[in-house]
Amino acid sequence: MADELMLEIVSPEKMVFSGNVEEVTVPGTEGEFGVLRGHETLLSSVDIGQMSFTRNNKKVNYAVNTGYAEVTANKVTILIETAERSDQIDLTRARRARDNAETRLAKIARDNEEYEKVRAALMRAIARISVAEKESIK
Question: Does domain 89-137 have CATH number 1.20.5?
């Protein structure tokens, strides 16, 4: 299809997704950005959050960890630490991880070397919950 672009989502363990899509939305570290076919070339870091794409007029959501996105006019490559599709997330486990991270974060001073690690764990749990809840609404 002329209006599609190739999307590849790659983690260290596997090819998470590879296929043609209509559009992609990525949580960049400088803010969320969308990509359609014909986009200008771009290299961006990816932040913890929700990434989505539309394929066959259906939106697919992923909770993603940090990584990089390379965009060309007809291809988006996402190199990511982790990517979990919404229907593969255990919501109970994600909520438990959020609660544990919130408890730990409340006990750590901001200047503690563990603070950023625990904050990132909290952000990952929140992203997973948000993405999983979108799936459960369907």
Answer: yes
